[in-house]
Amino acid sequence: MNILLIIQSIIMGIVEGIAEFLPISSTGYLILSADIMNFWTQEKRDLFIVFIQLGAILAVIYDYWGRLWNAFMGLITGKAEGLQNPRQLGISLIIATIPVMALGLTLSDFIKQIFHPIVVAVMLIVGALLIFYVEKRPHKIIADEAENIDFKTALKIGFCQCLALIPGTSRSGATIIGALWLGISRKASTEFSFFLGIPVIVGAGLLDLLKNKDVLQTGEDWAILGVGTLVSFIVALLCIRLMVAWVSRRDFTIFAWLRIVTGVIVLIAYFGFGYHVTG
Question: Which pLDDT tens digit goes with each residue over 215-237?
């Protein structure tokens, strides 16, 4: 067993678990972390980066199981305890998922070709500027709970999520900031983003594993993937509630500054010190 690869897998799991639900781009930070550590071969690394996010989203399913089951039963039966419109959350999530699923299936191979630190750096900075813009706009709240987001707004959030197909944009950032811009409360924007990640990330992770499972040639390869996914689940489970508590009281400008600092450091390293992609 390659102990170094196991340690690197654990580090990648920690990065994913922390970054998945923050508007800073977990994929971007995974790409940068893997590149700095020279983690695995390129094909295995690309599969790892996509699949490991499944661990974090399983933490959402575990932590929000009651509400998710309520939404599912409301969608199927039209009845859900405490909900005036029991089918609304389920249908809204389906509507919001359609754009990114359609675009992701069409562009999946191209997206992997732009898994590049410079693309990440540029999009980190662009995303930060969008966060500053949205945070400075006055917010008129039209929905204070995820269950109250209407279908038209859900579709708009779904189109915002499509931006996250570009590495460095951040799926959480695109959906949370997009929802805020559309008038959803901070807490509802964050939780809807959590829920919206379930079909997208589970679908992308399983599809990529199915298409590229042949790159995992040994039991050790599968163990490395499994360790990273398990660590991302555990760390994400610890971070979800902290994230919701944070956004209920504060804005996202601190994450915008973090994005800018990271993006600038990568650009300086690349153009000033000859930092290039490995693998």
Answer: 999 999 999 999 999 999 999 99
Taking only the tens place, the pLDDT of each residue in 116-144 is: 888 989 999 999 999 999 999 888 899 99
Q: How far apart are CA 271 and CA 274, in angstroms?
A: 6
- Determine the 3-state secondary structure of 146 from DSSP: helix
CA-CA distance, 128 to 132, in Å (whole number)?
A: 6
Q: Which of 37, 31, 36, 35 is nearest to 16 (CA)?
A: 31
3-state secondary structure of 71: helix
Is residue 278 a part of any domain in this protein?
A: no
| Contact predicate 259/124, CB 8 Å | yes
- Domain region containing 167: 3-273
Angle at which helix 186-212 crosses helix 88-113, to 10 degrees, equals 50
Provide the whole-model pTM: 0.86
φ/ψ of residue 143, rounded to 5: -150, 125
